[in-house]
Write a structure and sequence with these properties.
The structure is a homodimer. The first copy, chain A, is an all-alpha fold. Chain A has a domain of 132 residues: Orthogonal Bundle (Tetracycline Repressor, domain 2), CATH 1.10.357.10. The first copy, chain A, has 9 helices and no strands. The first copy, chain A, is elongated. Chains A and B meet through helix 6, helix 7, helix 8 and helix 9 of A and helix 6, helix 7, helix 8 and helix 9 of B. Chain A binds a DNA duplex through helix 3.
DNA sequence: CGAAAACTACCTACTAGTAGGTAGGTAGCG
DNA sequence: CGCTACCTACCTACTAGTAGGTAGTTTTCG
């Protein structure tokens, strides 16, 4: 457990909150400095440039996702329950406003205007998530625990798109329950014999 | 046909392109001035503030959507074909890069950081689109031309979310065909006896 | 052990450049 | 004339980033 500095983590956490709210161009070093109580020059000590900061954030976001999915699959082996848990995770984050949006989904929306290093990180996240979902759906279809009407890869992309779009809608309506409402029928179509 | 000035329209078109690329904070008056060949002070003559500009853009975007859907329903009365045409419209826009993202979907992603007047316009667009889709799906279900497994409103929200999420994915992968690939099974699940 | 050297984390003070916006003037036209 | 559309020239506030300094801690080594 390396805990060399708490400040770097605080900066990353603050940056994540700002990006989730307003995107890459929606915050400045001054904003971060104010909320965590240091001077903005000190942020440059931890992250020389804004690109370094967001790049680190995106890389760690992907690492956490990989670790989270690995852990999830150890505890919850059944594909239907995996999809439900994944959707439930975001439903919870949105409902308690702790992480009301996926950082990479948000950054993807402004991808053409992003520094290339960050764009690459965002792409990597999409590829990982899509790959993981494809594997889960493939396994579920083979077992008969999931019903699919297209190739696993296509079903996975559609599922991921619905999750990201539902985040957008939840935000647009300002209603935290919208996400769960949208995901319910999406899950139902994939999972037979529900209820 | 009021055509009082071409410049104001040019400014709006440039702003739309910039917003679609990088969001509200991803462009400046200087950027617009450069591409359309006037000085940035002249933009203030047409749109006193950036909020005015984007507010006008969003309002007109909604007006165009309302007009477009009304026109569409006159030409294409069948619900399955309406959904297919709507999805096909965006597939085309993304494939020829003419309008590779919905302005309001993009602005929704940074909604918490948006000036309130603009946020309200974005919300209005989501409400209109959701309402229109709900009507189409309701009619299709009553006619038996669409198969639904949840309330029309919920199916409409899920469909809209998938469309928006698919835009995100198309952008993340940098592959213009991703959108159509995702929408195909989504439409198939709603439309029986396809093929 | 203890002093010197090096490193960490922060600071003040500054830079060049850009943001949105304003003041005031001018060219062309009905 | 008065209006529209544009201009030059400017403003203030803020952007990311730099220079250089200072405490306090850690490492190195005689």
């Amino acid at each position: 457990m390396d805990k060399p500095s708490n400040t770097a983590d605080d900066i990353l956490a603050a940056a994540r909150t700002f990006i989730v709210a307003g995107g890459y161009n929606g915050f400045s070093y001054a904003d971060i400095a104010e909320v965590i109580g240091i001077r903005k020059a000190s942020i440059h000590h931890h992250f020389p440039s804004k690109v370094d900061l967001v790049q680190t954030l995106v890389r760690r976001y992907l690492e956490d996702a990989v670790a989270g999915m690995t852990e999830l699959e150890r505890n919850v082996p059944e594909p239907p329950e995996l999809l439900r848990t994944y959707a439930g995770f975001w439903a919870q984050c949105i409902e308690d406003a702790s992480r009301p949006f996926c950082v990479c989904a948000l950054l993807a929306s402004e991808l053409p205007a992003l520094p290339p290093e960050i764009a690459a990180g965002v792409r990597a996240y999409f590829q990982f998530l899509s790959g993981w979902l494809t594997g889960v759906i493939e396994r579920g279809a083979a077992q008969g625990t999931l019903t699919i009407s297209a190739a696993p890869r296509v079903e996975a992309e559609a599922f991921m798109a619905t999750v990201h779009g539902a985040m957008l809608s939840a935000r647009a309506y300002g209603d935290v329950l919208t996400f769960g409402m949208i995901l319910a029928p999406t899950l139902q179509k994939l999972i037979p014999t529900t209820d």
